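Hi team,

Filling in the usual template for the complex we talked about on Friday. All components are listed, including any nucleic acid strands or ligand strings, so the model treats them as one assembly.

SUBMITTER: L.P.
PURPOSE: interface mapping
COMPONENTS: two
RESIDUES: 1132
SEQUENCES:
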Amino acid sequence: MSGQEVTVLVIEDEPEIRRFLRTTLHAHGFRLYEAVTGGDGLAEAKSRNPDLILIDLGLPDLDGTELIRQVREWTSTPIIVLSARDQEQMKVAALDLGADDYVTKPFGVNELLARMRAALRHVARISETRGDSVFTLGELRIDLGRRQIFVSGKEIHLTPIEYKLLTTLVRHAGKVLTHRQLLKEVWGPLRVEEAHYLRVYMRQLRSKLEENPAQPRYLHTELGVGYRLRTE
Amino acid sequence: MSQERPDPDALLKRVQAEEVRQSEGRLKVFFGANPGVGKTYAMLEAAHEQRRDGVDVVIGVVETHGRAETEALVTGLEVVPRRVVEYRGTVLQEFDLDAALVRRPTLILIDELAHTNAPGLRHAKRWQDVQELLKAGITVYTTVNVQHLESLNDVVAQITAVRVRETVPDSMLERADDVELIDLPPDDLLQRLKDGKVYVPEQIQHAVKNFFTKGNLIALRELALRRTAERVDQQMEVYRRDHAVVRTWPAAETIMVCVNMKSRGPRLIRVARQMAADLHAKWIAVYVQIPRHLRLPQVERDRLVQTLRLAEQLGAETVTLTGDNVAQELLSYARRRNATKIVVGKPVRSPWKEWIFGSVVSELIHQSGEIDIYVITGEAGEGQPLIRRSLRRTSDRSGYAQASLGIVIATAVAWSMFPYFAPANLIMMYLIAVIVVAIRSGRGPSVLASVLSVACFDFFFVPPYFSFAVSDIQYLLTFGVMLVVALVISNLAVRIRQQAELARDREKRTGVLYAMTRDLATHRGAGTLAHLASKHLREVFDSQVAVFLANSEKRLELQRGEQLYFEFDPKEAGVAQWVFEHNERAGLGTDTLPGASALYTPLVGSAGAIGVVAVRPTDSIELLDPDRLHLLESLVNQVALAIERTRLSEEAQQAHVRVETERMRNAILSSVSHDLRTPLATITGAASSLAEEQGILDHAARRELSRSIYREADRLDRLLKNLLDMMRIEAGAVRLSKEWHPVDEVVGAALTRLEGRLRDHSFNTTFPIDLPLVLVDGVLLEQVVINLVENAAKYAPPGSAIDLTASVSDSDVVVEIADRGPGIPVGEEARIFDKFYRGKFAREGGVGLGLTICRGIVEAHGGRIWAENRRGGGGVFRFTIPLLEQQPSVEAERAEPKPA
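RESULT (copied from the run log):
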């Protein structure tokens, strides 16, 4: 994002949506490549090597999740999924397969841009800083280097699991993390089906960090998908 | 009374009968006076003629009896192979009804209509086979002799002195489309007999001489001719009636025939039938059950059943009345039914007995008024009751012991009174004892008590004491009177007792009928009713009961209830199916398939059979008692009515649902088209001005237009989402993917989603930290919260707060969403959850689906949702989610200090 144009590949079969993305993203300074089918999209991704890929889950020739699996075989380029409302399960599968985030149609341009920025920033953070960064959001301050958490300047004590859960979310701040991903990361591969563990610990974490846990500011729930740590 | 036009009712009946006939096969009867006149021959010739005309002719059964001429005619015709039946070591070749039905020819020849089938075949009689063939639409040619006609049976027996056992109901001949009389003058027949051209089975050779006398032959020929002529008369009459040529018959007469235990039944029945046929009258066979009939031996009761059965076969309606006075019962029933003639048997009591006790017949004659009484003599041998009324043991040994004990007590009491009272008073003690014994123990013991009391009185209280000798001759009179009084009293007491028993019996029957009817009336669903019916029938008849109901493919299905059905082998199921298809009773105790283990009665609804009830009694004799059969019939009728009623109401319900669905669909269409078009109109308008503006609009205006496009698109999106959700819920396509969720998290997620949209309101959330987890579909529950909050926000004034709380009550988590809007109009609290219902205060936007969706989702989770007005103003919506006993286990974290 530093001066040089960010390239985005859109794989979408609906011409009107492509047109709207083209106009909008172009106006926001992105450079766009377009593909209508999954096959074309895969070829385009290989030849153009874009900074970010937008994939529609309802492509005519290829299952969206299959496309993501194939893309992920050779690149970690951030992928954002464009999903329809009745594709909940596919959406989660896409995320578990390595898609970075999703937007549900119909979506506003602000929402899409926020997701794109989060995905690109994540890549940037992984490549730039490691370990000792400090995450701040509103009254919340997380010092990853010192393993300290402050809310309104007051230090908060977390249990090891709570801490691990929080840092996992921090490392992917702004991105949605599926239940599976979080469970695997925090509890290891044996507990990936037991989402209620996650929910119970999430509640504990919220009660420690949030002013009003029933109206969370930082730790957002995406029901049926997973959790997201807000960044803005 | 002449009439210009045909009676419409009668005509309608005939048209209906014709319609039934149309679908059935035609019946042609080759009718003869005697064996040997050439009926079979004529039938075969007619068959050949038909075959030459291209008709598909098959021989079902033809007895050639080895006659060459007849055999020659058989060749060239297809023959249905006989069915070989083994019966008591004899191999019988019988007509194979099933094979014939499968073969389905156009015309089938069935010889010897009166033949009795071997046991084990479906029908007892061959004429029943023929009936079934006709019903299947197959035309039948058959042969019968005059002496086999049921109604002529007696006459023939009188003429020939040979009683023919195999009979055919007259209705078969009446039903025939054609009757061809095969006539041969007696002399020619005798010649043929002499030439050995008439087949005579060996075992009746001796009878033949008596039978084939010229006198007999002439008489029989006359009978046959007369019978045929009668038929022609009838046809003529029907023709004339149809064409309104002559006056119609007087108002249909009703003849009542009284059957009693004295076993002259069959003759009475036949006479009555003949009368009824001659008068074209309806006839009823009536049996009056009086208390002492209960004590008659089984044989006699069986005979009564058979007599009533015979009457039914001959087309009578059968009725059983209960009462003490036969004549009274008969007359009152006759008046009720408008019977004009009563047929009774001549009394068999000896004249002096009749003089003392009177007889039913004389009573009838005296009191009949306008009703004619016909008194019929019985046949010799039949007149006397075959078995003298034998005392059923109304009492066992203990009864006699009680009798003795009673007398001992009476003696003891009398002894204590002896010094103070005259002997005449002591007799009273004994009479009391006799009454008590008679009421408690029945006839035998009371007789014993009577005798004993005389003996004891003599022994203890008549000088010389302690001896049976009597010093004063006067006492002999005392003894005599005492004995007579005791016997009369005991007899009366026993009568009272029997009367009471009978009343109890009837009471019980009424009770049973009432209990079942009530039970059936308060339940719904054919399956439930079948179950109830079998329960009641089982109790009443002490039998195993099964109820079959027909499914849509007209196949019977056994309705199962615990232990109420019995095992069915395919044969029994076949009987049930037969009963269903033919709408006739069959099985145990009937003429059709009597080998079955149960009695199968069709459940007859208004449009034919709807099922079959099978009753397998522990005591088959008891079930086949006419009384019990009538009770069974009325119960089964009730069941049929109830099942039909429930089916009809289900159908009506479905029709109602269809109408409702249709109405709903229209409501959706009008509502949806309006609600979709409004935002679309805004979008189209705004977008077109933006597209075509050519620099006229300033920046602020463009921004305003774009905003309204965005807003309306969002509204459209929500509308579509609601519609889709609704459709999914309606279609039952919602699959709950339940997981353990904290309610507060779900509410939190919903509020986060609404953040951008509901800026005008603030939310107060109160959730206890220790709320248990609930097993729900999080996404759907979030939708419930979103819809409720949106709904609240729609009505709550801007700037006001919406309160969300959750609490645990009993076995639910209750979530509450309350606003300070106008509240819910009184009386609409429930209706606001109805589809497309829009309250009095409804605001723009929304189709009235949001709350319906909420209810659908909450109910799918086993919860409840309702709305109330809030204290202090506003509305409050509450819904519950059931709590499960077992919360999911979450392994506690090991208490480790946070790594520093």
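MY TAKE: The CA atoms of residues 763 and 802 of chain B lie 5 Å apart. DSSP finds 27 helices and 25 strands in chain B.

Thanks, L.
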